[in-house]
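Fill-in record for Signal peptidase complex catalytic subunit SEC11.
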Amino acid sequence: MEPAFQRGDILFLWNRDSLAKVGDVVVYEIQGDNNAVDDLGLYAKKQPYLNQKTDLVGTVKGYLPKLGYVTILITENVYFKYGLLGIMGISSLLSNE
């Protein structure tokens, strides 16, 4: 998706009309890169390619740069995750309401 979108960007998708037009940035759900098996397990039986009508997640209508790093930090850093949960738990116990 680079150079348009970087890791950590949050994308806003629209999926009302499943047909994409030329020039649209589309999002499909695939397995990813550098996997031991190929992506054919994601397709329906005897389907050698992604189908635009059924496999299209949506088209990108907007994005917020760098905001997704909060989620990445919580997911990839165990100490930060449990520290944040601890702070939230202590603050809820100490609240007056």
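KEY FINDING: The mean pLDDT is 85.
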